[in-house]
Amino acid sequence: MIRKRTALHLSEWLELDQDLWKAANSSGKFLEPDGKAAHWKTKTRNGVIKRYSLWLGYLTSVDLLVDDSKPSERLSKDSLTGYVGWLEARSNASTTISSCIRDLREALRVMEPDADLGLITELTITLHAREKPVRVKHTRIMHPDVLLSGALALLDNVPNAKFSNNTCQATKYRDGLIIAFLTCRPIRLANITSISLGQQLILHNERWHCSFEADEMKDNRPLAFSFPERLVPYLEIYFDIYRPVLLKGKDSCDLWISIRGQRMSEQTVYWDICRLSEELFGQRINPHLFRDCAASALATEDPEHILAIARILGHASITTTQRHYNQSQMTAAVDILHKVLADIRNQPDDKQHWSRE
User: Fold this and answer.
1) DSSP per position, 265-307
2) Does residue 19 belong to any structural domain of this protein?
C-alpha cells in the first residue's frame, strides 16, 4: 500500500514561512548577525525541513493553516494534540513522534527567535520521556572480535568462492571490508560513506591515514586515526581487483563504489551491511550498532577509560557513554546468570544436594 503524500514541499510553504526560513538560514551582512540556522549541517537542515513540512501538511489536512498567521500562532493544545494523534494513527513509533515534535520546535525556534515556545517545549520533554525503543538493542550486541573474525573469514573466502558475475563478487568483498573497517573504527555512517581518496583517506609514509575536519563530524571536532594495519592487505586487494570492477572504467575518488560506478549512498551502505551481517552472524548489525558493540566491549573490559570511549565514539555528552557502560554491565550480568544456570544443570543428580539438614 502506497501512503498518500501529506507533507508540503518547501516551495508549497506559505510565503511568510518561506521568508522566515530563508532568513533563519542566511548569513548576515556586515555587522549583522547570522540566522539561527545558518551554521546547521545540511543533514540537520534537511531533517527539520522534512518534519516542518509534515506539520504544515497536517495543518492543511484539517484546515488549520491560515495564510496570515505566524508559525508560532498555529501552536495550541488542540493542534498539537491532534498532530500527535495523527502521527500515532500513521503507525509511527514513539521515538519518531518525539523526533517530529522536536524538529518542529527547532524550526519554530530559528524562524521566530522571540516567540513563546513554552507549550511545544513542554510537549517535547514529555514525549522524550515516554519514548519506547522499537528494537531491544542490547540483545544484538556482539563482541568486536567475533565481528572481525567473521568479516575476515569472508574476505579470505571471496576470491575462491563462486559468484554469478564479477560485480557480485566485488560487492561482496567491498561490503565485507566495510564491516571489518567499522568493527575496528566504528565511525558514523555519514563519515564512512564520505571517505574519498586524497581527502579523508591518505597514504603517508607508506601508511594509510583517515582524517575528518570538524565540520564533517557530528560533534564538530576533528577526528584522525590510522587505517587498521590488519586490514591494509585487504584494502590493497580492494584497490587492485574489486574497486576497478565496480568503477567500470569511470574515474572517482570515492572509496566505496556502488554497482553504478559512483559513490555509495548512506542508504545503500546501511542496507548492504544489514544484509551481509545477517548472513554472517544470523542477525542484522546496522552500521550504528557497531558503535554500540565497540562501546560495550570497551566499557566491560576497560571501564577506567570511559572518557576515552566518549571521544572515540564522538559522544557530545558523557551521559551517552554512561548508557553504553550500563548496557555492557547488564549484558555481562546476563552472561554470568547463564553460566550459573549451565553449571547447575551440569551438576550430578545428588539427592542430598537439595535436602534440608
Assistant:
1) PHHHHHHHHHHHHHHHHSS---TTHHHHHHHHHHHHH-GGGHH
2) yes
